[in-house]
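Could you show me some protein's one-letter sequence and the numbers that encode its backbone in two labelled lines?

___
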Amino acid sequence: MSTLLGEGGIRKMKTALKENSVDYTLPMGDCTVAINGLLGQSISLSFLGAIHCVHCGRKTKKSFNQGYCYPCFQRLAQCDSCIMSPQKCHYAAGTCREPEWGDANCMVDHFVYLANTSGLKVGITRGTQVPTRWIDQGASQAMPVYRVASRLDSGLVEVAFAAHVADKTAWQRMLKGANDPLDLPAEAARLSQACAATIEELRAERGIDAITALESEAVTSIEYPVLEYPSKVKSMTFDKMPEVAGTLMGIKGQYLILDTGVINMRRHAGYEVALSQSTEN
């Protein structure tokens, strides 16, 4: 027998950091389902056959950029290539797809941070997305290093750091276990020294207040609800199978870790899904 826990269009899992531990809930249509309590339980996620754009609600045969229909993917600023490569921001050129969206989301303070995900990496995020961004990436530790005046500024600093450290998470490695702790303040000092000349050039070009080094920032430690990590990571997707089922062994980043494989819930935003829990007779 099984109990239906929720159904509807899913969104990326919502997270809350409580005493360094992450609490997960999954939005499904008009309801949310608490996920942590399902650890160790047999669950199934059944694709109901429909995908709707997370922005306009249009039914679409294929999802783009984690939940958008193709017209929105082509039109929205939040789907532009400069979101993935902020150093390519073209707002100043007057060619932003949605200048008002850019004002609210790009022309605001950002943080350049270091995180321990699949190892040491550099990243950027708006202040309002701390610590959500770190959790979504599966970081076990994170620390802001610079406060910058815009998304473009953050991208330019990130590129400088990326010459010395990774700027992407190896998601398979991240899902195989918890990393050994890193001395993030020491790493920040090392990288800031290595990039000192470039940072000063950017300040001269962008303005002295565009890039501010942060002193004595605390390291945020993050623990994920995981019973057991997989030795091999098998990715599952509703694009290839109508049902994903198994025992829930953990949750990390935006992934559900089952004993049968892993599924990226953020990747399936907009998919109509039913979540059930198996129960004994």
About this structure: Residues 151-162 form the longest helix (12 residues). Helices lie at 70-75, 81-84, 99-105, 132-136, 151-162, 171-174, 184-194, 196-206. The mean pLDDT is 96. The longest strand covers residues 42-51.
